[in-house]
Amino acid sequence: MTKKPIIGVSGCLMGHNVRFDGGHKRDRLITDVLADHMEIKTICPEMGIGLGAPRPAIRLQEVNNETRLVSSKDSNVDYTSEMVAYSKQIMSGLSHLDGFIFKKGSPSCGAYRVPVVIHTEGHRRHDGTGLFAREFMDAHPWIPVEEEGRLKDNCLRQNFLERVYALHRWQAITNPDENLAAFIEFHATHKLMLMSRNHAEYRFLGQWVAETNYATLKTRRQYYIEHFMSVMRKDVTKGRHVNVLMHIMGYLKNKLNRADKVELLNSFESFRNSHLPLSAILLLLKHHLRKYPSPYLSKQSYLAPYPQEITA
Ligand code: SF4
Description:
Layout: E1 6-10, H1 28-37, E2 39-43, H2 45-48, E3 58-63, E4 66-71, H3 80-91, E5 99-102, E6 114-118, E7 123-128, H4 131-139, E8 145-147, H5 154-171, H6 180-189, H7 191-197, H8 199-210, H9 217-232, H10 238-252, H11 258-272, H12 278-291, H13 295-298
Parallel strand pairs: 1-2, 1-5, 3-6, 5-8
Antiparallel strand pairs: 3-4, 6-7
Bound molecules: iron/sulfur cluster.
Iron/sulfur cluster is lined by residues 10-12, 18-19, 44-46, 103, 106, 108-109.
């Protein structure tokens, strides 16, 4: 088993001088925090297709109703085919990744709202996707992706980290096409995480796992992980977290004294009102679970979705 998750990162975010101007866009969250906990695989697709650094700038532009990757100075200089061919060529070698952090706004790497120049009208729309990022997401819809800019947001960062570490646990399953026990165990350990996203989906995936046997495991597991990761993409509201916290407390209700119960309920309320972070509540619950262990709860990744040392 690989000890650390492996994530892809746009090369310029790691401080590599691969941008069109010969510079970089080092992102300290990635280089100073995440890189201590994850194995980083850097890719610069524009260098990959042979454009050097420095190089003339390129952009997404609408040409004959198609979004093309062209030179900013001359739209007749078109790199679309090279970029698509390069991306397709390296895609199969990236399916082991547990996540990818793309550079926002890039015509090659941007995952969301990349500017597309509308040639005839002389303005931009902001709904494009970088060509390399598009190929990556199409080829691996289950692998979590984010942009460095969006990772500044606490909720988006936590959600991304939860998905990266969940996928890492999935990818660590040995002999996966025949290991029915590990498949069942994976679902069992992520029940509360799924419940925090969507109760109906949690039940649907539970049913999917229950109906899987040795003969069907190979074909059903890919559907499972794609569905699982799409559920995990959903934001978790404070209310849904409190529902799960109450569910956890239910397992402790016959063990805790009145003062402990009141303290927990007050802490849930403080979390709901943004006076306490979720991590503080989980710490308190884990303290009680150490005193009153529960085999079901102790394995729930909801209580420890990723290493605590990653400040999120
Ligand atoms: S955004 Fe992507 S293509 Fe552009 S310099 Fe960074 S890694 Fe290279």
